[in-house]
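User: Here's a structure from my thesis project, written as C-alpha cells. My advisor, Dr. K., wants to see whether a designed sequence matches the one we expressed. Can you design one independently, without my sequence as a hint?
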C-alpha cells in the first residue's frame, strides 16, 4: 500500500506561515512548530501594543506641553484648566505640535489660558 503524504493544503499552509515569519531569527522562521508559537505570540504583542502606543504618545504630548508651559511660568494643569474655561477645542496632540514648531503661537495660547483662570 502506498504511503499517504501531506497534501497540497498542508504544504500551502506551511508556506504561508513561513512567509509570515520571514525575518524571524534561527528556527523561528523555518521550523514549523516554533514558527506557529512565535507568530501567535507576536500577534498578541501587536494587539496589546497598539493600545500601549496610544498611551505612550499621550504621555509624550503631555511632557512636551508641560515643558513649554513651565518655560512661560505656568503649570500644565493650569494651562489645561484655563483652556477648558476658554472653551478651547485644542487637544494635547495639537498643543504639543504647536509648542514644538510654533512657540509664538503657543505663548498666545498660554496667555489665553491665564486670562481664563
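Assistant: Designed independently from the structure alone:
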Amino acid at each position: 500500500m502506498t504511503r499517504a503524504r501531506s497534501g497540497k493544503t498542508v504544504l500551502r499552509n506551511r508556506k504561508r506561515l513561513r512567509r509570515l515569519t520571514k525575518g524571524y531569527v534561527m528556527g523561528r522562521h523555518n521550523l514549523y512548530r516554533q514558527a506557529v508559537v512565535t507568530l501567535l505570540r507576536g500577534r498578541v504583542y501587536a494587539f496589546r501594543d497598539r493600545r500601549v502606543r496610544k498611551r505612550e504618545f499621550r504621555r509624550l504630548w503631555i511632557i512636551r506641553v508641560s515643558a513649554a508651559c513651565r518655560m512661560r511660568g505656568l503649570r500644565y494643569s493650569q494651562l489645561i484648566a484655563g483652556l477648558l474655561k476658554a472653551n478651547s477645542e485644542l487637544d494635547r496632540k495639537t498643543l504639543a505640535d504647536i509648542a514644538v514648531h510654533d512657540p509664538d503661537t503657543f505663548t498666545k495660547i498660554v496667555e489665553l489660558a491665564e486670562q481664563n483662570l
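When you compare it with your expressed construct, this may help: DSSP finds five helices and no strands in the chain.
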